[in-house]
Design brief:
Layout: E1 25-29, E2 38-41, E3 46-49, E4 56-63, E5 76-83, E6 89-95, E7 110-116, E8 122-128, E9 134-141, E10 147-156, E11 159-167, E12 173-179, E13 186-194, E14 198-207, E15 210-219, E16 225-231, E17 238-245, E18 252-260, E19 267-277, E20 283-288, E21 296-303, E22 309-315, E23 323-324, E24 328-329, E25 334-340, E26 347-354, E27 359-366, E28 372-378, E29 391-397, E30 403-409, E31 418-425, E32 431-439, E33 453-461
Antiparallel strand pairs: 1-4, 2-3, 2-26, 4-33, 5-6, 6-7, 7-8, 9-10, 10-11, 11-12, 13-14, 14-15, 15-16, 17-18, 18-19, 19-20, 21-22, 22-25, 23-24, 25-26, 27-28, 28-29, 29-30, 31-32, 32-33
Length: about 450
């Protein structure tokens, strides 16, 4: 089952949700230093480093106020991010506290939307709050400026619902719709835009003892349901993670995890699938990674300009071994990037990135010029400005997945761990934005600094 505490599914096990405390802070600050890393393609090794450059335009750390101090899990969590036509950015996630213009007197999780301008200044914030817990997971911005957030609502111990909420560019709520499939627990995973008027909502729902996947087609103007498709049965255990639209054809790419043969079958070890659908939602092909001790875990997907699919994620251990200059054969997890043939799903090529400690790609996007942008996490100390705590990397690659530059950010600039969730590029490819959650420092009078978190939205020049 998906994990709400990470705002996106990364396994088929879901822990309980517990509220926790945060403090108020809204600051903009700079970042220093770049990073270096190493790459490898399948069947070989490459010890050359990726060039580092300093293209940071701004960091914006946003923290809520007035949340209860229950001290169990992070309380300000960033999830999806999307670029706006004016060079700004919209980020969604959840918070237990209040913001200016977005109160949260109930002190439970609220699905939160932040609208920032091109300099990282917050223009407005909105909370969607039902009383039992709302968790923003994804956001999309339409050409007319309409902002749509996908979230999941906890209605009771036995019922959750998938929610879509539309806002004008000024932050006025236009409509909100609720989706529950067969009266079962229904959860949002990702919302994307196809064309200028159709939303596609990917998610999951329970079916007996199983978990199935659904895809809703929704009218952008009013949130009405146009059509729905589902995959799986009572024996299926499907956890969708990401979806991408091929603009030219309306074709869809989906990645996720399963414990069964897709979409149903005998249970086995957790493994990933990459699914290609035509514009009508019919399966063209599916690629399943073999369940072994080194099973790749696909966490993000995007179409390349030629129609091939690019999936990014993590490989649990080296197969084949990766050699990093000065480190020898590694045994930590590392980032994986798989290119699949758009016609039949066969693997065209594999790239592996490794910094010196556990790495993974969390999200990827492809810009209009074919450039690839990856955001992920690492536990490596890239340079003297960073400690060996979890922080983030942003890598730009060319159309053939050759690295152009890398930036590392997180614990060298902000005390504590940094967890990435999203990446988006402006239409003109003039800037790229990342959405992450950081552990922010607390004052000496506040006890548990490891649980005090905030959103970190960053803008990078290209």
């Amino acid at each position: 089952m998906p994990q709400f505490e990470q705002a996106r599914p990364t396994s088929l096990l879901k822990p309980s949700l517990i509220a926790f405390a945060v403090c108020m802070c809204s600051i903009v600050f700079g970042c220093g230093g770049g990073a270096s890393s190493s790459t490898s393609s399948s069947g070989g090794s490459n010890t050359s480093s990726i060039p580092s450059i300093n293209t940071l335009q701004w960091h914006s750390a946003i923290q809520s106020s007035g949340a209860p101090n229950l001290g169990s899990a992070p309380g300000d969590v960033a999830a999806g991010v999307a670029a706006t036509s004016d060079g700004g950015v919209v980020a969604v996630g959840y918070s237990l506290g209040s913001f200016i213009g977005a109160p949260n007197s109930l002190q439970v999780a609220a699905a939160t939307v932040h609208r920032l301008d091109a300099t990282g200044k917050v223009i407005w914030t909105r909370n969607i709050l039902s009383g039992s817990g709302d968790f923003g997971v994804s956001v999309v911005v339409a050409p007319d400026g309409t902002i749509v957030m996908a979230s999941t609502r906890i209605e009771s111990s036995s019922l959750t619902s998938a929610i879509l909420t539309a806002f004008s560019s000024a932050g006025t709520q236009i409509w909100q719709t609720r989706y529950v499939i067969n009266g079962a627990k229904t959860e949002s995973t990702k919302v994307v835009l196809r064309g200028s008027s159709e939303l596609l909502l990917l998610g999951s729902f329970t079916n007996g003892t199983g978990q199935n996947m659904f895809l809703n087609s929704v009218n952008l103007q009013d949130g009405s349901l146009l059509s729905t498709k589902s995959w799986g049965d009572a024996s299926s255990l499907l956890a969708p993670v990401d979806i991408s639209v091929r603009t030219s054809s309306g074709e869809l790419g989906v990645v996720g995890q399963t414990l069964t043969t897709f979409p149903s079958g005998t249970s086995g070890a957790t493994h990933s699938f990459v699914l290609d659908l035509d514009a009508s939602g019919n399966q063209r092909w599916v690629h399943e990674f073999t369940a072994t001790s080194t099973t790749p875990e696909a966490l993000s997907v995007a179409f390349l300009t030629n129609g091939d699919l690019l999936a990014g994620g993590v490989i649990s251990s080296d197969s084949p071994p990766i050699f990093v200059s000065g480190l020898g054969t590694t045994t930590h997890s590392h980032s994986g990037l798989w290119r699949l043939n758009g016609a039949d799903g066969s693997i065209v090529s594999t790239k592996e990135f490794y910094s010196g400690a556990g790495d993974q790609v969390s999200s990827l996007t492809v810009s209009g010029d074919g450039s690839i942008y990856l955001v992920g996490s690492t536990n490596a100390a890239f340079n003297s400005g960073f400690t060996a705590l979890q922080n983030c990397f942003l890598i730009k690659l060319d159309q053939n997945a050759n690295p152009i530059w890398v930036q590392q950010f997180g614990s060298g600039d902000v005390v504590g761990k940094t967890v990435p969730y999203g990446v988006a590029v402006t239409a003109g490819a003039s800037a790229v934005f990342t959405s992450t959650t950081i552990q922010a420092p607390l004052g000496s009078s506040q006890a548990n600094s490891t649980l005090n978190t905030s959103w970190l939205i960053s803008g990078w020049g290209l």
